[in-house]
Amino acid sequence: MILQKLTDRSGYAMGMNLLSRFVPVLFFVFVVFAIKASVGAEGCRKSSLFPLKVNHLSIAFPGVRLSGITLKTSVEKGKGCAWVYNIEKARVKKLRFKCWGRWIELNNVSIEGSIQGSQSGSLDGRLTAIIPRMGKIVLKAVREQDNEVFRAVVDLNSLDIFPIVAQLTGGKLVQGKIPLSLAIRLISRSDGIAYSVNGKIAGASWEDEPFDYAGDDVRITLHIEGRTERKGEKWLVSKGDFDILEGDVIFSGLMLDFGITPLKSRFSGVWDLATARFRLTFFTADLLDLIKIRAEGDSASEFEWSIQLTSLARFYDLIEKESMHDSIFSDAGFRLSGKCKSFGRFFVATEKSGICGHLMCDELNMHSESPSFKGEFVFDIPFFLSLFRTSITSPEIKCPSKGFFTAKYLDFYDLHLDRIDIEILSDLNEWTLRKPIDIHVLDGVLVLNNASLKLSPRLKGNISISTKKPLKYNIRSFPVHLKTSGITWTFDGANLRSRGSLLLAAFSGTVEVERLDVEDVFSPSRSFLIDARWDNIDLKKLSSISSFGLIRGKLAGYVRSLRIAYGMPIDFDLVLWSKPSKDQIISITAVENITRLGSAASPFQGVAGAVIKTFFKEFPYDRIGIRCVLHNDRFSIQGLIKEKGREYLVKRRGLRGVDVVNIRSPNVISWSEMVKRLKRVKEADKPIVK
Prior knowledge:
This protein has five domains: 1-110, no CATH class; 133-264; 314-426, no CATH class; 436-506; 520-683, no CATH class. The chain is built from nine helices and 45 strands. Helix 1 packs antiparallel against helix 2 (24-42). The radius of gyration is 39 Å and the shape is elongated.
């Protein structure tokens, strides 16, 4: 009966703990036959055969369910009053076990093997479990005669655990293979069980359908040593290490080559059978001496952790090379350097779990080539994050709430900003600006009124600015003043949407930007959406900064749904019209360029046209009215002035003036052809008359 008690305790403890969690069926069978061994040993002289059949048996352990068990066994008399118990046929139709909060299901697990026991208490057994499409698990157990030491070995030789991993990910992974070789050794004594685990995964690969999560030729090694305490209810991990030494892994767009950046980790913890949970007590990891992670405590209650980034430049070079080579940051020649770290604590209270700490950089340098950008920053930003949607209200949880972000300097093209100090408040899943900030820039004062960023349950935020003193900027010696009574951008995780307007005083007129949105902010294909209107623009000043040709007068108009991507407009509705003024003059160059852009007829054709151009360089005009539309790569120009069945882009004034007639309306061409015409206008040194 000593054997019965020993194997009963050992079998139950091991069955609840082993990593793959489907091993309990082996131990259950093992326990059944160990009990029979002791009974059979007492009666070995009376019987030579003891058949047993079981059909449709169901068994439940904490976190484990077995159903549809069929079993056929026999007992044979061996030498020296030994008994051999053969499992001729055993199958578990459905095996379900709970792992990391998910129920995993395996079907049609078959078992075969034999157990040999003697009246003196020795035991020698071997069981093999075969799992369809995965492989087999071999259990070998020995209890020496007159020795209370019980030894067991579980061998997994290239067991493909991909079906289990796929279920753990909720079915997101669609194909792959994860061959696991694992050897588990246990020694049971009167004072408990000592165990060791040695495993490796060689050549693993997996992927999901959109290829957001994938791995190729991943090689992992695992080693664990530990023992049990409290009658086997808790399995302690006294020493463990987990290393990823080869392979490529893609995780949400981030790709790591572990052959270049190996991950080495060490850990300890405890597996509590009562709660079926593994609690981490110590963890350290090193990723190529770039990222150093250390954590200590109890992951089931409170855990202190720290992360140190030893070289931001090397780390950014790594992720930029592997994961961001075709991104907005790579296109801009973006670079980072400096040192950063983070530390804090992780706490657990049933579903109300969270993490709080600091994100700090003593020195952060950023620069990019296009757009030209350079800056140096220092910050200490506290954070308080909930790991679940349930809000955290416990008064016992104290997290830091005040932080700062300082820009020592910032250069953007020829724009220079001196030191800016921003105070930040941290609350649950959110950062906010503590108070408004005055930013002195471009001979004016820009006010950052408020800003916030909410991290959970989904990323969103807003930023609001206004001007105390208009900002001033010169465009080829012409001043432009920008002011706003208030404009706010809201961020939904991918897009920026504006509310309010910007007012520019430029070229003796006004430009009001009514919408300035950005879609897919962090994507290389990000696009800007603009709605604007202008009034009383001095055409002489405006035309003087381009090679289009001199025009005098006043201009009004608007643009709707202007969309710019990759630096080029891809959609817009543009309307231009002149306002009555005393001095309305258009040059020959401007007239020719207007006709060149559209399909209008040149007023300077033939001998008469040549004579006119010889004696006149400018002409009076009465009105200008043009509408340009770009949509689905189709561009069209229409005249807004219609008289006597004709459509005019430019209507003359008096006998000396000239008309620009749109002879085909709407004249639709491809946008690429329009870009070619614009280039010809820009490159033309003098007007060309055909």
